[in-house]
Amino acid sequence: MASRNKYVIIRNDLTTDPVTMFSEGLLIGRLLACEVLLNHPAVSRVQAGIKQINDDYYLFALRPGNPVLLNGKAVTENEALAPGDVLKVGPFQLEVDETEEALVLRVSLQIGMSASEVDVSSSGLGTETLVPTSTGKTAAKPRPAPVAGTKALDIFWDKRIREAGKMVRPSPLFPKSQRRSGKAQFHWIPTTDLTSRWPVSFFIWSVLVVGVLAVVAAYSYTKAYTPGPISHAHSMSAMTLSPTIAVRPNAGSCTGCHSLQGNIAQKCSACHNTDAFVATVITPHEAAGITCVDCHSEHQGSSYSAKEAALMSCTGCHNDGNKKTYSGKRVSTPHGGTFGYPVVKGVWSQKAVNEEEWSLRKMVVTRLPSDSEEKWRSNQFHAFHTERVKLTGGLKGNAQGQLSCSSCHNSFNPIDRETPRTTCGACHNGRIAAGSNRVLIAANQPNCTSCHMQHIRDKRRWGTPMITVE
After folding, report:
1. Spatial contact of 140 and 82, defined as CB atoms under 8 Å apart
2. Helices marked H in 221-282 — which ranges?
3. Alpha helix ranges (H) inside 183-251
4. Rg (Cα) of the chain, in Å, rounded?
5. Which sign, positive or negative, has the C-alpha torsion 92, 98, 99, 100?
6. Cβ atoms of residues 138 and 128 within 8 Å
7. How far is CA 378 from the centre of its chain?
8. pTM for the model
9. Which of residues 277 and 469 earns the better pLDDT score?
10. Do the bridges between strand 86-89 and strand 69-70 make them parallel or antiparallel, or are there none, so unpaired?
11. What are the C-alpha distances in Å from 319 to residues 10, 287, 414, 468?
12. Angle 427-465-426 from CA coordinates, rounded to 5°
């Protein structure tokens, strides 16, 4: 006994493998949704159907005006199928076979006519009319009678035909109005070469035109791509500083800083690398992801100085109002809000001097094994001031004109920690540009760079007027 509604389709007319399918009803026709697709104008859209009823398979005529031939006889309603039956659908021949599991249909395309259909008798040749051979094999069992038509069968096939019609894929060749009916609308197979291409072409040509204009503008009118003019230092074509702080002049070139290989920070450090100056970044800034452009921004105008901007950028980040995080950490107003005295609530700041910076300053103070971290930070801070810094107006000092302990502290037993908070501002506040007397940092604002060095390998830093010895 065959399994329920199982079919095996073997296409001898196509180079495809046999297909096994399960379906309550098998459609034969020219629609793409038909299980047995026979693409020929002589075949109706849905010409016939096969359905299993009880243990037998039946062929149903769905287009009586274009009937299927079963063993040479037109099927007008339905007929039971048996192994060895031959179905004729247009130029196609379907040989019927049956296994214990499924109904097998072997499809082939018949070109021309068979010999049994041609009268080749001739009295001159002594031949007789050929007797037509049987088109099918003898059934192994009596053929069941056709099933009586029922409303349920009519509804089943109507539903299957509607579903097949809905599955037809839309084509650009289908007319949008006055659509033809019948076979005429299925004679063409959609092809992409007839599809309207103007939206894609318009987009491609637009991209090409914009790209060409962008390249021309990039070379002929550089300012079109800049948010503002670059600084005078970067637009000069010759080096004027001595000693030089850059390997070569930038001469207003965009590619000197912007290129496909390497970011701007890498370009800065590669160019600013001379015997007198090396663009280094201190360890805390490096850990926070701070690079050259975070302090030295460009495109601010020809009179803009990247060096002067860096002096004012410290307090822009290091304040309690800055809610931004740097590698997951926050920054705050340093030194408890003073100009630079690093003692907050009686404890020395944990921001120790970078070891490389300490070695470059060539200080004679060394750390003893018994010195704690806080004691060592105190020794470093006092060594910076008592060994190298000149006196400024209003402060007392030693005979060599240098700062001494009494310059900042009024008493030592107990030690005076309040006066240094006011005396720091005598040196570490404000900044005036040399020559132009332009105010770089307001007098009531801390000058962080007077003590903290970003580029610790800048040899010019050791020649500042506040330092007495190199």
Report:
1. yes
2. 232-235, 264-271
3. 198-220, 232-235
4. 48
5. positive
6. no
7. 52
8. 0.48
9. 277
10. antiparallel
11. 82, 19, 32, 32
12. 10
CB 7 within 8 A of CB 102: yes
Strand-pair partners of 343: 348
- Whole-angstrom distance, CA of residue 368 vs CA of residue 133: 120
Write out pLDDT tens, residues 109-145.
887 554 444 454 555 545 454 444 444 444 456 788 7
CA dihedral sign of residues 281, 287, 290, 291: positive
The token pair at 280 is 């280094």
Whole-angstrom Cα distance, residue 448 to residue 428? Answer: 7
d(CA 106, CA 96): 7
| Distance (Å, whole) CA 360 – CA 277 | 13
Dihedral (CA of 333, 336, 342, 344) sign: negative
The H or E element that residue 352 is part of is: none
Tell me which amino acid residue 163 is: E
Contact between 74 and 68 (Cβ < 8 Å): yes
Q: How confident is the model at residue 208 (pLDDT cuts 50, 70, 90)?
A: very high
Residue with tokens 């390497």: 262
Instruction: Quote the pLDDT of residue 210.
Output: 92
Helix (H/G/I), strand (E/B), else coil: 161: helix
> For the chain, how many helices (H) and strands (E)?
10, 16
Neighbour count for residue 297 (Cβ, 10 Å): 16
Q: Of 416, 421, 411, give the one whose Cα is nearest residue 446.
A: 421
The token pair at 400 is 């060599």
Strand order in 73-74's β-sheet? 19-22, 6-11, 103-109, 92-98, 86-89, 69-70, 73-74
Angstrom CA distances, 263 to 218, 260, 268, stand at 19, 8, 9
Average pLDDT over residues 28-55: 87
C-alpha distances in Å from residue 400, one per residue of 42, 81, 388, 389, 393: 118, 124, 10, 11, 15
Q: Which of 451, 431, 434, 450 lies closest to 442 in space, CA to CA?
A: 431
Q: Closest Cα partner for 440 from 429, 430, 450, 449?
A: 430
End-to-end CA distance of the chain, in Å?
A: 108
* Strand-pair partners of 432: 439
Q: Which two tokens stand for residue 217?
A: 């503008």
Q: How many CB atoms lie within 10 A of CB 252?
A: 14
